[in-house]
Amino acid sequence: MSAPTEKKTIFLDIDNTLYSTNSGVSRHMGQKIHDYFLTLGLGEEEASELHHKYYTQYGLALRGLILHHNIDPVDFDKKCDGALPLEDLISPNPGLRKLLQDIDRTKATVWALTNAYRPHAERVLRILNIDDQIDGGLIFCDYQKPNFACKPDAQYYHDALAKAQVTDLSKCYFVDDSRINVDAARALGWGHVAHFCEAGLVHVEGGKVKEIGSRQVNGQDGVDVIADLEELRQIWPEVFIS
Ligand SMILES: [Mg+2]
């Protein structure tokens, strides 16, 4: 086994962080999951209620479906994330690619981290044309494992640190569009956490349409709030090529 890393480690959330909520991916995702609930024989309203309840209670609707409806998570993944028309919704973003290329890899390793399963994560990174920029690897929810952890479970973050061999939390960087996920990392002592917040835009969370809240919380509890990933250059200058 190799020695724990001396370098800084950057964890990038994927969905609605590496592409904008404006893409409509969250809306399509919400619809696919809703349709999946309908296949269980639920009515429209009951499906919406349960979808939101499981999302809120378990961090992922899927975990409620496994616990209470004994569904096959791999089948769910195929019919939900795997059925998204991602190629029509997102495309390579040269600015994002340049941002990642400007991270100094002698100082930092970049990981992508998601609550989705591996195929979805790999597909998004490939479409965005940044898969080669993720030199650390992928942290994903292993749908094949019973009781897999997801953000914001502490276990998920512990597993991510173990996989990336991070022992010094002051060298740990994280950006995510979910405030809950960011706060969880911060509460566990992760050194540099940023909330990517596209305030005013509408996204779908747990099947419900919500407006993304304001940026008034900037700096609170050690969390940086950014509206554009380019702002990472300002808040984390030490990881970029100078
Ligand atoms: Mg996200």
From TrEMBL:
InterPro entries linked to this entry: HAD-like_sf, HAD-SF_hydro_IA, HAD_sf, Pyr-5-nucltdase, SSM1_domain
- GO process terms (BP): nucleotide catabolic process; pyrimidine nucleobase metabolic process
Highest taxon of source:
Eukaryota
Q: Which GO terms describe its molecular function?
A: nucleotidase activity
Q: Which Pfam families is this protein grouped with?
A: Hydrolase
What is the protein's given name? Pyrimidine 5-nucleotidase
Native species: Mycena venus
